[in-house]
Amino acid sequence: MAYHYKRQNGHQHNGEKKNRNLSILTGNSNPKLAQAICAHLDVTIGRAMVGRFPEGEIQVQIQENIRGKDVFIIQSTSTPPNDHLMELLILIDAARRASAERITAVLPFFGYARQDRKDRPRVPITAKLVANLLASAGADRVLTMDLHSNQIQGFFDIPVDHLYSINVLSRYIAKKNLRNLVVVSPDVGGTKLARAYSKVLDAQLAIIDKRREGAMTTKVMNIIGDVKGRDVVLVDDLISTGSSLVEAAHALKNAGSLDVYAAVVHPILVGPAIERIQNSQLKELIVSDSIMISPEKQIEKIKVLSVAKLLGEAVGRIHDNESVSSLFEKSAVEA
């Protein structure tokens, strides 16, 4: 049976020999997103058993013939990151030993990315370590989205396709027709991302100057820009415990802003994050489905937007050896 997939322009390719060689596998981190990507491509997800031995070791078996196929393994290295990273590495190794023609690791969320440089003595660079592990396991290329820092692309010695979810999230924000919108970066380091959103949304830009008082706590010092009497959107690449974002929303309200929204790509949401968001000044937290949110964390304030179409289109283009650069506005994300 020939696989076929539907493209964004509405055309459908089927019966072509190259599409018969497409195989998509997934671990346990985000099977719902993997299924949605397969639905966009109009293919059936590959059969693979990813379980545990009694003592907790990860057990993998690919339960279909992938010899000579173009294999894409979809797995976010989200909570628990160690388990999901090992699942990905073992799946890659299994695919390599099963004689896959090419293996692409698809990481909607690339974990271990926050340690991307030596900012203190005697600390690791885990982003580089994970890049090495993926290549050593047998990955031929990587497809990922909204890396914590762009420099991580250079840690790989294999091709990397780096997508951005800015168009997915900004379209939703634009439909709200917010009043005198201001895009706010929660820290100086996120200014580039905030500037990209302000350009796409044709909005003003503001920056929060904060001081980190510990690994988990920050204190807002100043707000650079005019937010009084305006709706604001805080933008960031990830939210973990929610401390920084909630503190920023509180500071913006105190500075006279109207409704405070947040657009954050990767919803890690650990510890007291849900309680903090629920009790915060945030009107709505807009996230992607790069990380699966468990049912107990799905509160009314959190809006989840799917990136399955974006990732599915990229998988189809990589499979056909076509360019993926048209899937995002390069000029916007590099502003």
UniProtKB/TrEMBL annotation:
Involved in the biosynthesis of the central metabolite phospho-alpha-D-ribosyl-1-pyrophosphate (PRPP) via the transfer of pyrophosphoryl group from ATP to 1-hydroxyl of ribose-5-phosphate (Rib-5-P). Belongs to the ribose-phosphate pyrophosphokinase family. Class I subfamily. Mg(2+) binds at residues 148, 187. Binds 2 Mg(2+) ions per subunit. Pathway: Metabolic intermediate biosynthesis; 5-phospho-alpha-D-ribose 1-diphosphate biosynthesis; 5-phospho-alpha-D-ribose 1-diphosphate from D-ribose 5-phosphate (route I): step 1/1. Residues 1-23 are annotated as: Disordered. NCBIfam families: PRK01259.1, ribP_PPkin. This is Ribose-phosphate pyrophosphokinase. D-ribose 5-phosphate binds at residues 212, 236. Residues 23-138 form the Ribose-phosphate pyrophosphokinase N-terminal domain. It holds the Pfam family Pribosyltran_N. Coiled coil: none annotated. The active site is at residue 210. Its main location: cytoplasm. Keywords: ATP-binding, Cytoplasm, Kinase, Magnesium, Metal-binding, Nucleotide biosynthesis, Nucleotide-binding, Transferase. It is found in: Cytoplasm. Its cofactor is Mg(2+). ATP binds at residues 114-115. It comes from Candidatus Danuiimicrobium aquiferis. GO terms for cellular component: cytoplasm; ribose phosphate diphosphokinase complex. Its EC number is 2.7.6.1. GO terms for biological process: 5-phosphoribose 1-diphosphate biosynthetic process; purine nucleotide biosynthetic process; ribonucleoside monophosphate biosynthetic process.
